[in-house]
Each structure stands twice: as structure tokens, then as C-alpha cells.
């Protein structure tokens, strides 16, 4: 990966799940734990649960409600918040993410988290991994009513925090979100090579990929 032009970067925008935190927690919860508990709570087989859940997940992907715990609790008639606590021991920081956060703070960069995670998910994770002190703001897309995939999110973010896209770095593990940021004019973009520690590297298409946070510290 090429060295970042830190002298041209004032603001660092960071995703949470898969970027700062290991995506294994979320993948395990949504693909394994929730379907199993859904089956148990509704008295059906796991296979039937998968048949019912798969089209719902696919049909709502990329929309704000996909990330909304209230929506899924109503839709599935199960207590999603409580179920997320059952696997909270899997919430984990990606290696050296805190080292990176400390370094960019020391360098005087403006550091802001922007996540599609519901506020309840954000709170749960911040209770277990103390990252909040590193950030000027922790922003959930639910605050604006648009997911990061939407151009309207970036307009709302600009109106809220007044950042210069041309002098900003954004790191995220989701390609449609990175493309949305690029369309808005964010100049420095990085994908994440391996968001889930339990799965192999992913194809990051046209984006340079972050493998190790220590790689980013050169020239800071």
C-alpha cells in the first residue's frame, strides 16, 4: 500500500464494524446466532429459519432499516438487543487499531467515527471497547435518517460537521459505501483487506486495502 499523504489530510473518518472492530462478531451474530435463536423462539427448525430469514436479509440489505435493531425486533418478533448481548464476548478490536487512533490524535487530526450501526449497537460496543475518547464525534447514520450508501448521508454529514472532502481520509470495509464517499468527493479512501478475522482476505476492487494499521503510520 502506498504511503498516505498525511500533510494533505486534516480529517479522518472511520467506520466501526469491520474497520476498527473485528467483523466476526457481527457475521456470527447475523448468520449463526440470530437464525438459531429465531428458530428456538418460534419453535421451528434451523433450516426453516434460514428459509424465512434469507430473503428478508437480502431484501433489506443496504437500506437504513437493515442496520436498525428496532426494525428487526418488530419484523422477526424477537428481542434482538437482548440476543446481541448473548454473543458480546466476541466483540474485539482489530489489531493495532488503538495504536493508530492514538497516533492520529497525537498528530492533531480531526477524528470522527461514522457508522451505519444502530445507536444501541454502537453503545454496546463502546461499553466493551473503549474507543470513544479517541473521537471528536461518534455519528450513527440513524442520526441523519440515511445510510452511508446514500448521497444524502454525505450531504447531512457535511452540514453537521463541516469537513473538507478533499482533505479527508475515509476507511471502510464496504465497497458501495466507499464509492458513495468517492462520489461525494472524499479524496483519500481505503478499504479493509480482511474485515473478519475468521475469514480470508476480500476483493477490494479499485480501492487500496488496509492490512495492518501500523502501515498507515509512516509519514504521520
Protein model, in words:
The chain has 8 helices and 6 strands; from the N terminus they run βαααααβαβαβαββ. The protein has 220 residues and is of the alpha/beta class. It folds into 2 domains: 6-22 and 92-217, HAD superfamily/HAD-like (Rossmann fold, 3-Layer(aba) Sandwich), CATH 3.40.50.1000; 25-89, no CATH class. Helix 1 crosses helix 2 (46-60). The two termini are 15 Å apart.
In a nutshell, what does this entry contain?
With 220 residues, this protein is an alpha/beta fold. The chain has 8 helices and 6 strands; from the N terminus they run βαααααβαβαβαββ.
Q: Any key phrases for this structure?
A:
single chain, 220 residues, alpha/beta, Rossmann fold, 2 domains, six-stranded parallel sheet, 8 helices, 41% helix, 11% strand
Amino acid at each position: 500500500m502506498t504511503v498516505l499523504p498525511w500533510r494533505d489530510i486534516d480529517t479522518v473518518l472511520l467506520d466501526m464494524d469491520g474497520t476498527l472492530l473485528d467483523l466476526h462478531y457481527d457475521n456470527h451474530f447475523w448468520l449463526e446466532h440470530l437464525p438459531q435463536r429465531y428458530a428456538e423462539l418460534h419453535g421451528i427448525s434451523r433450516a426453516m429459519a434460514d428459509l424465512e430469514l434469507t430473503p428478508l436479509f437480502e431484501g433489506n440489505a443496504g437500506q437504513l432499516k437493515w442496520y436498525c435493531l428496532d426494525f428487526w425486533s418488530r419484523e422477526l418478533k424477537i428481542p434482538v438487543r437482548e440476543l446481541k448481548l448473548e454473543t458480546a464476548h466476541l466483540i474485539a478490536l482489530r489489531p493495532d487499531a488503538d495504536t493508530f487512533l492514538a497516533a492520529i490524535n497525537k498528530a492533531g487530526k480531526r477524528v470522527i467515527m461514522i457508522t451505519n450501526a444502530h445507536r444501541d449497537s454502537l453503545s454496546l460496543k463502546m461499553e466493551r471497547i473503549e474507543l470513544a475518547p479517541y473521537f471528536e464525534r461518534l455519528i450513527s447514520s440513524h442520526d441523519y435518517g440515511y445510510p452511508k450508501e446514500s448521497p444524502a448521508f454525505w450531504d447531512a454529514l457535511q452540514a453537521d460537521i463541516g469537513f473538507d472532502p478533499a482533505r479527508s481520509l475515509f476507511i471502510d470495509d464496504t465497497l458501495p459505501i466507499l464509492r458513495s464517499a468517492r462520489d461525494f468527493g472524499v479524496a483519500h479512501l481505503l478499504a479493509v483487506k480482511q474485515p473478519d478475522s475468521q475469514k480470508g482476505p476480500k476483493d477490494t476492487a479499485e480501492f487500496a486495502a488496509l492490512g495492518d494499521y501500523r502501515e498507515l503510520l509512516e509519514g504521520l
